[in-house]
Amino acid sequence: MSAVITTLGLTKAFGGHTAVDGLDLVVPQGVVYGFLGPNGSGKSTTMKMLLGLMRPTSGEITLFGERLSPSSRGALLPSIGSMIEAPPGYGHLTGRENMRIVADMLGLDDAQTDRALATVRLTEHRDKLVRNYSLGMKQRLGIAMALAREPSLLVLDEPTNGLDPAGIEEVRTLLTSLARQGITVMVSSHLLDEIDKMASVLGILANGRMLFQGTRHELFQHSIPDLIIETPDSEAALAQGITGVMVPEGIRISGVDQERTAEVIHRLAAAGVRMYEVRRVQQSLEDVFMDLTGREGLL
Ligand SMILES: Nc1ncnc2c1ncn2[C@@H]1O[C@H](COP(=O)(O)OP(=O)(O)O)[C@@H](O)[C@H]1O
Ligand SMILES: [Mg+2]
Q1: CA-CA distance, 36 to 201, in Å (whole number)?
Q2: Residue 70 above 80 pLDDT?
Q3: Ligand in nearest proximity to the CA of 20
Q4: Looking at the CA of 298, which ligand is closest?
Q5: Which one, of 293, 298, 295, lies nearest residue 219 by Cα?
Q6: How far is 231 from 275, CA to CA, in rounded Å?
Q7: Which of 75, 94, 123, 144 stands the most exposed, by the fewest C-beta atoms within 10 Å?
Q8: How far is it, in rounded angstroms, from Cα 192 to Cα 185?
């Protein structure tokens, strides 16, 4: 699988603060790449550097196999559609008028902008003023603006931010269908949930560093199962110096490897705790994510 974006040691410092710290990104062609991290972890800064909107302090960016530089930027950008931070668009103009501005800037025809509006399902709203759009419609208009030039790479910064579940589902369906058509989509979020079901590759950022990059399946390989002990003696079990929580069927202890499982069983049996069943269960993706990011400010 060839990569559409790669970075090597990508770094951005603001004064003494390193916002993006030595990122080695690999975004394969034709996937939805979920770029996840808590607020302030460096997602927008990274995306701005990828688009040539901000100059890295150090490190290299390669797009479509070509090194991004002030001289290559002009040739690379027409293949990239983007939406960074807030959705763009003038409130006092209609959706279609906003699209026409984009079209004029990029030299596109009405057929292309109408197609982009249709893709995000805004055709029936295209003659309404953008200030009367819902947040979801504004986000979709932003995606339409990014799509109008028919890019082979879309870079979208938190396009699901503030959307209700139906809005998130709509963006998810749209982005996965774009990826199926061969468009590479890099999409950021601070909420795992919003991205989990659409991204096939995840990059997880905290404090400007990449904690994990790979498929969902690979992420699960980092996880250690939880242990559930079915017992009527939950309190007695927790009194044995075991850090677990009470659940309806007994107690649940997170992240327990095989050796510790044996120890726990031994200790509880020795204390006379009745155990009806002991089973190891896969952590939720959320828990794996929380363990990686140190449970700071997520979800
Ligand atoms: N232009 C800037 N000047 C100074 N600090 C900045 C600037 N942009 C971002 N930062 C800082 O860099 C860090 C990462 O910010 P950002 O990339 O916006 O994170 P995210 O998009 O993940 O929320 C934050 O600590 C933020 O305050
Ligand atoms: Mg951001």
Answers
A1: 11
A2: yes
A3: 1
A4: 1
A5: 293
A6: 5
A7: 75
A8: 16
User: All domains of the chain, ordered by start, with CATH?
Assistant: 3-220 (3.40.50.300), 226-281 (no CATH)
Weakest-pLDDT range from 23-27, 289-293, 294-298? 294-298
Whether 26 contacts 43, CB under 8 Å: no
Closest C-alpha to ligand 1, atom 1: 14
Distance of alpha carbon 33 from alpha carbon 26, whole angstroms = 9
Task: Give per-residue pLDDT as tens, 105-135.
Answer: 888 898 999 999 998 889 999 999 999 998 8
Q: Measure the CA–CA gap between 216 and 118, rounded to whole angstroms.
A: 31
Structure-block tokens of residue 204: 């997880």
C-beta of residue 18 within 8 angstroms of C-beta of residue 208:
yes
**How many of the other CB atoms lie within 10 Å of CB of 162?**
12
pLDDT at 297: 44
- Separation CA 54–CA 96 (nearest Å): 30
Give the integer Cα–Cα distance in Å for 54 and 59: 13
How far away, in angstroms, is 40 Cα from ligand 2 center? Answer: 7
Give the contacts of 214 (CB within 8 A, at least 6 positions apart): 201, 202
Residues with CB under 6 A from ligand 1: 14, 19, 37, 39-45
